[in-house]
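ARCHIVE CARD
Drawer: 12
Card no.: 0347
Subject: one protein chain, sequence and derived structure
Cross-reference: see card 0346
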Amino acid sequence: MIIKLRNRLIAAIMVFVSIIVLVAFLAIYMTTYVRIYHENLEKVNSEEIITVTSDGQMVLDGQVITDAFVINRISPSLGVYFNLITNASGDLVWIDSALALNMEDYEAAARIAVENPDGATAEFGGRIWQYATALSDGLQLDYGDSAAAPEDLTFIRFLDVTDSHQTLNNLLITLVGLYIVLMIVFFLLARYFAGRAIRPMAEAWESQRQFVADASHELKTPISTLNTNLDILYASREDTIQDQIKWLDNSKKVLSRMMALMQSMLELAKVDEMSDAYHVEEVLVARLLDEAEDGYAPLAEKKNVAIIKSADEDVRICSNASMLQQIIGILMDNAVKYTNEGGEIQMSAYAEKGEAVIKIQNTGDGISPADMDKIFDRFYRGDKARVYREGNYGLGLSIAKSVVEKLGGKIHVQSNAERTVFTVNVPNQKPRRA
């Protein structure tokens, strides 16, 4: 499901980005196209008034032309172009060109313009030309004693637009190539950021899935035990309660452990759902250690374990008192369970760099290096044999870590073959009410 969500997110991002880029590139191309088109249109339709008088012969590329005038001139503002004039019969009667084109090209150009007088583009002489036609109202041609009337003549201008077309083609190729490159880049970025965006969700989903699986696994054994006890009781219906007290006591113990597990699961869920708007006030850390020492002293005495407290009495910190108390309680409970007979537990607290540092350390078998990185994972237990003996389900340290992180602090563990030390760093916060 998470992968499908990521893919949908990537697809949505790509569609959105591709539309924006496509619209932007299309706007660039169309703007350039319209600009070039209007520039060429303005050049090809620019108006000229010319009067030419001649009664001699003209020579073009070695050919004697007796029925057409040829003028070699150029107007830099119009670019590369040439002008033609045809009579009412469509015959070429005048050429205004400084280009190296032969007579066949001019005649072909004249035929194209006569056949399609509305103007378009044509290809000849290895170039692309845009042309326009108009009645030569401003032109008077004299052939010696006879003159052609302006209304009988058609003025045709051919403008070389090869470079313009090439510019547009190059722009199109550039934009298409850039579009492909950008899509690849955006895809990689979308894949990266989509992965980062759903990573917390994926981790939460995996954590929830693992939590449910682990909880189901933890409940499977006590439920099986209860079922077995009930089967034994059903098989001995004629016996008294006293006769079956062993199985009833066993069921009671199993239920107690199940209740403890459910309570831990509820506490963990409560921490996960806790908002950051908790109550913050000045807390005297030494007082919290005193309360924890008093609370766990009876359990420690049963194992002949000494509790040694060494804390600066003036260590104060702005934080949440109940959350700190919960952290200390979990660490003390863990220490009492795993301290060896006749061992000791040391509790200490001091201020360092604006933080309160709380340490709970105990003697006894240390934590193996293989378990160090997993000790705060939910339902993780290094010594599975102690599950029923100590009532440990591997949730306490996970709860402690979650609470510490809610307070903006850090918790870490150090251990060797003889001693284990849990250190909690809690930062100062600004006082506030929930």
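Annotation on reverse: Residues 164 and 170 are 10 Å apart (CA to CA). The first strand starts at residue 50 and ends at 54.
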